[in-house]
Structures are given as structure tokens and as C-alpha cells.
Amino acid sequence: MDFQPDRGGKKESAKATMRLPIAVAVDTPAASEPSISNIDTSSNNPYKAAREALDRDGFVVLSASLFPSFDLEALRAAASHITKEARSGTWPYIRTLPKQFPPWPQDPSHGIWGVQHLLHPLNTGHLVFAKSYFDKELLKYVAELIGCDEGDLTMELYNMLVRPDEDFSLRWHRDDITASATPEEELERLNKPAYHAQWNLALYDDASLVLIPGTHKRARTDSERNADPYEAHLPGQITVKLKAGEVAFYNNNILHRGVYDSKKERMTLHGSIGTTLAGEERARNVLQHGVGEWAKEWDVDGFEPEMAERAKRMRERLVELGKTSGDVGFFSKDE
């Protein structure tokens, strides 16, 4: 994984979760670039190291060697199949160009940049994706990064970010804080625990993530606040380059954006898992994607017994969240 200061040009998006000390930022240059946060099997305690890196920088990259049960070739085959269905209009759950946030139209005629609901039972490859989502080792990292017991984990989202049909970019944003928020409003939200872990699993090398380390624990500077939403270079931004099989966890309220290259293959699994500790705090972020419409009908037929039990409990917690939350609306319906 490469971790480099940016010089402008093409980029992408990011996300994760933590409760941290907060400070209002000022427009001063950073003393030094953050250290490379790449955790592998050489770490004495990779779970603790991942948590410390995520706390410090707002993101962390985990080596493919930490997830020996991931079957990259099987995932690529399943991803290729569902992507072809999405581009042809056979699979209706898609992220369509040029819309940035849900809800997305189901018409792929203008192109797509994502595929939704990989775990949906009508997806013929849903068991292949489920094996990576409910992977025992992945869930250990998720619980550590959230700061909860594995028995508290809640099923949320599993989608995929794909090569767009034309070059496409996301604006600078935080996932759960609007661009119009005042510094005080930003700090109020950033001081709260996020109660989930969010990650990208790259099936092919992926250089699409652009973020500003440390912005998950401070308000925006004046230059960040006043910049063009698609500014190619902001002070301190970096590009995170993932090798195939690597997993990047990131804070969903870190300041980030994405730029998608239509000439480069991309299939990156984009997942999130929550915790019962959140109550209804995560309801809008999760349910605005429509997962509640099919999760209650989803079963675990075909799963290995141990994985089936984990998946069943996590799904039941998601269904309960949907029952108690009602109409949650959308983060930015018209964008």
C-alpha cells in the first residue's frame, strides 16, 4: 500500500468511526506527514495496532495476509457477474451517474459507479460475498475498532464501488455532517462515538481514496470550508493506494472525496457493520440505502453452521433497527 501526499489530479472517497479528543483547526501547515498505517502479520498485536492507527489518522490499511480465508478469485468472479448484470439493467440496485448520494435511480443508461446489496438473496453470488462479510477474522477487527463485544455487532451494508462508465468524482464531504454545518456543529458530532466500522476491500489495485488525515477529530479550517467542493488539492490531503486483497478501514466523518477513473478496472467491496450500542444513531446512514426492504426476508441457507449463527444474529439486530426507526429520510436526497 502506498501512502503519499497529493499533488492534485484524480482521487476517491473514504470513511470509519471513533470517539476522540477534538480541537478546532487553524490554517497552519502540518509539521510532518502521518506515518504509513499498514498493519500486517509482523505486528505483535495487529488488532490494537489497527485501533491506534484509526484513532490517530482516521484510517488504517490492513494487509491481505491478515485475512487468509478471503478467496480473491471467487470474489472477483462473483463481482464481475453482478457488475455485468448491473450495467445491463438486470440488477436494479445500483449507484447511477452522476448522482452522489442515495436514493439512486434504477436506470443504468447514463452509467453506474456502484452496485448495491451484495448480500441480497436474489444475487446468485450472495454467499460468496457473505463469506467475506461475516468472516470471523474480519469481525474481530470490527469489534476492536468499534470498541464492543462481537456479540453486539449488527449487520449493516455490503455494496461495491466499480469503474464508472465515464470519469466521475465525489465532492469533499463527511458522511454524516452536512457541508453547511458550523464549526460548533461539526465538533458536536465529531465528539460522539460513531458506533460502526466501515471498510473497503479492494479486489483489484485501487488508487481512488483521497482524504485529509486527522480531520475526523477537528472542524474544517477556513480554507477547507471555503474551497471549491471539487478542489483537486487541499493542504495535507493524501492518496491511499490499495493493493488487491488489502482492507482499508476509515472514519466516515473524515474529510474525504473520490475521483473515479473510467479507464481503470475497479471492483472494491464497500462494507459497514454496527453495534447495538448505537441504538437508533445509525438508522439513517444504514436504512437510507434500502437494506431494510429485503433483510427481513433474507435467510442463511447454504452457510456453514458457525457462520450461519453469526449472520442470523447480526441480521436480526438490523431488522429490529428497521422496526424501531420508522422513516429515516436521506442524508442528501437531491445530490
Describe the structure.
It is a single chain. With 335 residues, the chain is of the alpha+beta class. The chain has one domain: Jelly Rolls (Sandwich), CATH 2.60.120.620. It contains 9 helices and 13 strands. It has helices at 46-57, 72-88, 126-133, 136-146, 183-190, 222-226, 283-287, 292-295, 305-325; strands at 2-5, 38-39, 59-62, 94-96, 112-115, 153-162, 168-173, 196-202, 206-211, 238-242, 247-250, 256-260, 267-275. The chain is globular. This is Phytanoyl-CoA dioxygenase family protein. It holds the Pfam family PhyH. InterPro entries: Phytyl_CoA_dOase-like.
Q: What is the CATH first-level class name? A: Mainly Beta
Rounded radius of gyration (Å): 19 Å
Counting DSSP E segments of at least 2 residues, the number of strands comes to 13
How many alpha or pi helices?
Answer: 9
What is the multimeric organization of the chains shown? single chain
Low-confidence stretches: 2-33, 328-333
CATH architecture verdict: Sandwich
Class by SSE composition? alpha+beta
Helix content: 25-40%
One letter per element, helices H and strands E, the order comes to EEHEHEEHHEEHEEHEEEEHHH
**Strand order in the largest sheet:** 2-3-11-8-13-6-5-4
Protein name: Phytanoyl-CoA dioxygenase family protein
SSE arrangement:
Layout lengths: L1 E4 L32 E2 L6 H12 L1 E4 L9 H17 L5 E3 L15 E4 L10 H8 L2 H11 L6 E10 L5 E6 L9 H8 L5 E7 L3 E6 L10 H5 L11 E5 L4 E4 L5 E5 L6 E9 L7 H5 L4 H4 L9 H21 L10
Parallel strand pairs: 2-3
Antiparallel strand pairs: 1-10, 3-11, 4-5, 5-6, 6-13, 7-12, 8-11, 8-13, 9-10, 9-12
